[in-house]
Amino acid sequence: MKDIAYVNGNFLDINDAKVSVKDRGLLFGDGVYEVAGVIEGVLIDNWAHLRRLERSLDYISLELPIDLKTLSEVQKELIFRNNMKEGTLYLHVTRGESQQREFEFPKDVAPSIVMFVQHKKILHISQDKLRAKVMTLPDLRWKRRDIKSIALLAQVLAKQTAHENGCDEVWMYEDNFITEGGSSNAFIIQKNKLISRKTNETILSGITRQAVLKLVEQESLLFEERPFSIEEAYQASEAFYTSASVFVMPVISIDEKIIGDGNPGPLTIKLRNLYENFAKSFINQENNE
Ligand code: PMP
C-alpha cells in the first residue's frame, strides 16, 4: 500500500501530492508546522500540538482556513487511510501560493495545508536504541525559536554535522549555555535534581517537555528551571532529551564525554516509563469514546 498524503482538502497518493513551486513555504520558509506522535493509530497529546499550532499561526498572522476540530478529523482520517499504527504525523501550514515572489503577504491567498505520516517505532523501540550520543554546536538560529517555523536550515546543518560525527542529536548552545536539541528539548540531572532551561523566545516550548514536567511535579521530583552550561552537561549524572517522535531519549555521551556510567540513568528510565504510560492513556481515552 502506498502512503497517502493530505494537500488542501485532498487525500492523495504520496507521489501525486504536490504544491506549487510558488508556495511561500518553499520560497521563504513562510509557514509553521507540528509533528505529533502516533501509537496504536492514536495521536498522542494532539490537542496540545494543535494549540501550539494555533499560537504559531497567530505569531505569523496566518489564519487557519478550517477550525482545529475539523483539522483533527483530517488527521484521524489520514491515519486511517494509511493504516498507520506507530510513528509521526507531520502537518504544516504555509502562507500559500504567491503570484509574484514578493516578500509582503499576498492578498486573497488561501493558506496551504499539507500532512503526511511517517511509520516509525516510538513506543516499541528496542532497548539498544535508547542510548543517544549528543554533540554540541553553536546555536545559529534566529531569535524567535518559540515559533515552530518550517525554516529549519540551522538545524538541518547542525544535525547533519552531528550525524557525520556519529551522534544522534545536536545540543545547540549560546553564550556557553545549552539552548535545546536540534529537534528536541534538553535535560540534565545533577544527583537527583532535574534541570531544564525555562521556555521563552530562546527555545521551543516542547509538548513532550510540558508533559514530562507535569509528571515530575506529580511525582514530587526535584526540578530546577534554569539554563545549564556545556560543562554542567558534561558533568551531569544523567541526561536526556524529549520530543514527540522519541518521547524521552536517554543520552549516554555528550561530545564523547560519557554521562554517568554510560548507560541510561535510573531517573531518566523512570521518566520515560511515566511518559509512556501518559502516552498510552490517549489510546485508552480514544477507545472509550
Ligand atoms: N525543540 C525543537 C527545536 C524541536 O524541533 C522540537 C521537535 N518539534 C522540540 C524542541 C520538541 O518539541 P515536541 O516535544 O513538541 O515534539
Total of helices: 7
Q: Bin the helical content.
A: 25-40%
| Global shape | globular
Instruction: Give the low-pLDDT segments.
Output: none
Count of domain modules: 2
- Main pleated sheet: 9 strands, mixed
What is the succession of H and E elements? EEHEEHHEEEHEEEEHEHEEEH
The CATH class of the largest domain? Alpha Beta
Average pLDDT confidence is: 97
Distinct small molecules: 4'-deoxy-4'-aminopyridoxal-5'-phosphate
CATH architecture of the largest domain: Alpha-Beta Barrel
- Per CATH, what is the topology of the largest domain? D-amino Acid Aminotransferase, Chain A, domain 2
Number of E-state strands: 15
Strand content: 25-35%
Query: Which secondary-structure class do the elements indicate?
Result: alpha+beta
In CATH, the homologous superfamily of the largest domain goes by the name D-amino Acid Aminotransferase, subunit A, domain 2
Distance between the termini: 29 Å
3D structure, described in words:
The protein folds into 2 domains: 4-119, 2-Layer Sandwich (D-amino Acid Aminotransferase, Chain A, domain 1), CATH 3.30.470.10; 127-281, Alpha-Beta Barrel (D-amino Acid Aminotransferase, Chain A, domain 2). The protein is built from 7 helices and 15 strands. Helix 5 packs across helix 7 (266-288). With 289 residues, the chain is α+β, with helices and mostly antiparallel strands. Strand 3 and strand 4 (42-43) form a beta hairpin. The chain has helices at 24-28, 46-59, 68-81, 153-164, 207-218, 230-235, 266-288; strands at 4-7, 10-13, 31-39, 42-43, 87-94, 112-119, 132-138, 169-174, 177-181, 185-190, 193-196, 222-225, 238-243, 247-254, 257-258. The structure holds 4'-deoxy-4'-aminopyridoxal-5'-phosphate. The site of 4'-deoxy-4'-aminopyridoxal-5'-phosphate has 13 residues, from helix 5 and strand 13.
